[in-house]
Write a structure and sequence with these properties.
Layout (H helix, E strand, L loop, with lengths): L6 H30 L3 E2 L2 E5 L11 H9 L2 E2 L13 E5 L6 E4 L6 H10 L2 E6 L3 E2 L14 E3 L4 H12 L3 E5 L9 H11 L1 E11 L12 H10 L10 E6 L4 E5 L10 E3 L13 E3 L4 E6 L4 E7 L4 H10 L5 E9 L2 E6 L18 H8 L8 H26 L1
Parallel strand pairs: 1-3, 2-4, 2-6, 6-9, 9-18
Antiparallel strand pairs: 4-5, 7-8, 10-11, 10-15, 11-12, 13-14, 13-16, 16-17, 17-18
Length: 396
């Protein structure tokens, strides 16, 4: 009887089977695990006013997390990043887009919205500016189109706080362009105080090499420092709301090249996070009330010169990076960095175990890899915060 398979074809099949298993069966099993895992109801309102493009880079990582964890709204639907948020909606019209926010709501409508919510999440309120739609590096600050906290935001925040529900806020929620009066109300309600300073790491301060340093920053620094620039190499820039700017040069004002986010292995709220994560993006320096617990903090490892400069700027040696406090049946969180920012496509969230896989593939120390920060730090932080909120909701 004639053989169906030759010896050579059987060898080839044996070689292919492991690849088929990896490429087909493992993803299929992962998807089925996700599919049959029970969904959970958590009513969340996300506010993102910094949406110049339909990539939704300031909140897509939040929505990915929600769907992966199978959190749904009260209608039993997954949250969609292109419509389930308040803020700016870009388009191709002359006005660059439209916006949806809370400013037009009545007091009764605000109370109803707060009643329905489990989580109020301010991911970014910086807004959109004309230069977001003009690719040139402007010499001066750009004109605002839409952004900043407004009266409607504060009204809802106050009502959610009165009901002791969970509030999560990130950089840039209370800083410019939010009016000072509105900011003060936000600070009082949340128990936070912005120092007026924001900062960011740049891998190269030589402006002939690094074109990402804004021209307005260069001009202001030269004007304030006798037309003198800093040495080439890595640095951390600081910008104050009053217009003052400073630069910390690596190996002069600080060590270790890049700011670090440090988390104690044993912390009061039990967050399981890497002990050290490099962080290269924007952050704000805030002060917190004593009833907050620090989950993680920034460490720029300043030299003696740097410590003196920090004191002169009115800043502490360490800055809070992620903080939390218990408020009855909820919690307040503040993340002092542009943590949710994610430009790259994240793929489908509908596979169980994907975060663990990507954590293994993205080295935590690689600060040039934005996805590494998400998988190693932000996803674990946010997923644990959401889980705690959901569990508290079940208890109450």
């Amino acid at each position: 009887m004639k053989k169906i398979f030759t010896e050579e074809s059987l060898v080839m099949i044996r070689r292919i089977i492991p690849f088929v298993f990896i490429l087909v069966f493992i993803p299929l099993i992962s998807y089925l695990f996700w599919l049959f895992y029970p969904s959970k109801q958590l009513e969340i309102l996300i506010v993102d006013k910094t949406v110049p493009l339909d990539s939704y880079q300031e909140h897509q990582s939040i929505f990915w997390t929600l769907e992966h964890m199978k959190f749904q709204n009260s209608a039993g639907e997954f949250y969609q990043k292109d419509k389930d948020y308040l803020g700016f909606y870009p388009d191709t019209t002359a006005s660059f887009g439209t916006f949806k926010d809370l400013e037009q709501l009545t007091e009764k409508q605000i109370v109803k919205k707060a009643n329905d919510l489990d989580v109020l999440f301010y991911s970014d309120t910086y807004g959109v500016f004309e230069n977001d739609f003009n690719k040139e590096n402007a010499e001066e600050f750009s004109k605002k189109i839409y952004g900043g906290l407004n009266r409607g935001d504060i009204n809802l925040l106050r009502e959610v706080a009165a009901q002791s529900k969970t509030i999560i806020a990130e950089f840039n929620t209370m800083a410019s362009p939010t009016p000072v009066g509105i900011r003060t109300e936000f600070e009082n309600l949340m128990g936070l105080k912005w120092t007026g300073w924001i900062g960011r790491y740049f891998d190269q301060m030589d402006t002939t090499i690094n074109e990402n340093i804004p021209n307005w920053f260069i001009n202001q620094y030269l004007a304030q420092h006798e037309n003198s620039w800093v040495p080439a190499g890595p640095g951390i820039v600081f910008v104050h709301e009053n217009g003052r700017v400073e630069i910390f040069s690596n190996e002069v004002d600080y060590f270790g090249e890049i700011p670090k986010i440090r988390t104690q292995r044993l912390n009061k709220h039990g967050f399981k996070l890497p002990e050290v994560v490099p962080y290269p993006d924007w952050f704000d320096v805030v002060l917190i009330e004593r009833d907050y617990q620090v989950i993680s903090y920034y460490d720029i490892d300043p030299s003696e010169i740097g410590k003196e400069k920090l004191r002169e700027m009115g800043l502490p040696r360490f800055f809070p990076a992620a903080v939390v406090k218990d408020v009855g049946k909820g919690q307040y969180y503040y993340f002092s960095g542009d943590f949710s920012d994610m430009k790259n496509s994240m793929g489908s969230p509908r596979f169980q175990g994907v975060p663990s896989l990507w954590r293994g593939l993205h080295i935590v120390t690689n600060f040039n890899d934005r996805e590494s920060f998400y998988w190693n730090y932000y996803y674990p932080l946010l997923s644990q915060a959401l889980t705690k909120t959901y569990n508290k909701k079940g208890i109450n």
